[in-house]
Specification:
alpha+beta, STM4215-like, 8-stranded mixed β-sheet, 129 residues, 2 helices, single chain
């Protein structure tokens, strides 16, 4: 299972959204929801030349919300769920994460053409393969 799928499932399990309704991974389709959450890959950090079995993937959580307050609440919940994960899995039989941390606080990035507020936060994970 992909990291981004696991993160989306973790959000679903913690009532941040419903998969394929207002919670997605990889691509955000046009949906008629007051709020939408997307988890997408953003590459990763440079691998350690001495520790080739450790990977440092990065990912972004993108939030689109009808109101600023709703989007900010989701952003805060996302940060609380992921920032500071140490030595655990997010879903049963999933990837074991040595750690996950936010690369920045995340925040409001403006409104889209339909007037929805957009938020973004980026994370780095550390995984031993």
């Amino acid at each position: 299972m992909k990291l981004i799928e696991e993160v989306a499932r973790h959000f679903h399990d913690n009532s941040l959204g419903t998969l394929s309704t207002d919670l997605f991974y990889g691509h955000l389709p046009d949906v008629e929801a007051d709020t939408s959450i997307l988890v997408r890959d953003t590459g990763g950090m440079e691998p350690d030349k001495d520790l080739l079995d450790i990977k440092y993937p990065t990912f972004q959580v993108f939030i689109r919300a009808k109101t600023y307050g709703a989007g900010k609440d989701i952003l805060d919940s996302v940060r609380s769920l992921l920032h500071g994960v140490i030595s655990e899995t997010l879903i049963p039989d999933g990837i074991h994460y040595r750690r996950i941390h936010a690369l920045a606080e995340g925040g409001h990035i403006g409104k889209n053409e339909a007037g929805y507020h957009e938020f973004s936060i980026n994370f780095e994970a550390e995984i031993v393969e």
